[in-house]
Structure prediction request, 234 residues.
Amino acid sequence: MIIIDYKDTKPIYEQIVERYKTLILKGAIQADEQLPSVRNLAMELSINPNTIQKAYAELERQGFIYTVKGRGNFVSGDSGLIDKRKSEYLEQILTLVREVLEIGMSKAELIREIEVL
Amino acid sequence: MIIIDYKDTKPIYEQIVERYKTLILKGAIQADEQLPSVRNLAMELSINPNTIQKAYAELERQGFIYTVKGRGNFVSGDSGLIDKRKSEYLEQILTLVREVLEIGMSKAELIREIEVL
DNA sequence: TAACTGTACTATTAGTGATGGTACACTTAG
DNA sequence: CTAAGTGTACCATCACTAATAGTACAGTTA
Prediction:
């Protein structure tokens, strides 16, 4: 479910955060479903438990999961998250689009590329 | 011409590289035109000459400028760079687009946002 | 009680970005 | 030729972040 790309310049904990955000928003993990424990996931990915802990803390901070001490981490049921996440993506995309338009790519060409995805 | 954003998480030398790439591809700096010297630009931006050196070395590596020892750095006349750069942007954009489609945004909505730019 | 959970520490290592400083080779204007 | 300006190659250092390693403690549950 989680794959770490060591060639990626993004830190491991951030890759985990991104991956879970997508899984949750796609509905691949249901609300109130339990995530792997910090120690288990660390074992499975062969990385340090502290790194998982950092990822989970960030996911909780952003409202994607909630934590119950002694029990585990669970997917949050917050429905507003999808819209927030879409806005984040949209902003990133539009920033890049503005830059590529600046150096001469046409909107038409860009839209064509998106259409064929 | 060059502005450094210290709030940006991207390193300074990378911001300089990106900025010059855009300026060159937009034609804001002509082919064979001279860039500020390492020491001058460092003074102007109040940063270390080594940081400028790193940015210029990267721009040369990517073919955007060429260097003449003792004389300075000059804009390259390579016309293939624009297409290469467009492809870079396009790949980044399409990666993000795929992800936002995965969490349920529609192509139509996305295209509408681009249209109104 | 034992085996899980999360959490909070501290210490350490490794890598990167940036700075400060020195030195050297080349080019050009005077 | 000289001086001032170019790029370039170092080295040492600092600061920050990511990641690791290990320990300890508190809550939950079979």
Observations:
- The interface with chain B takes residues 22, 25-26, 82, 85-86, 89-90, 92-94, 96-105, 107, 110-111, 113-115, 117 of chain A (CB under 8 Å).
- Chain A has five helices and two strands.
- Chain A has a mean pLDDT of 96.
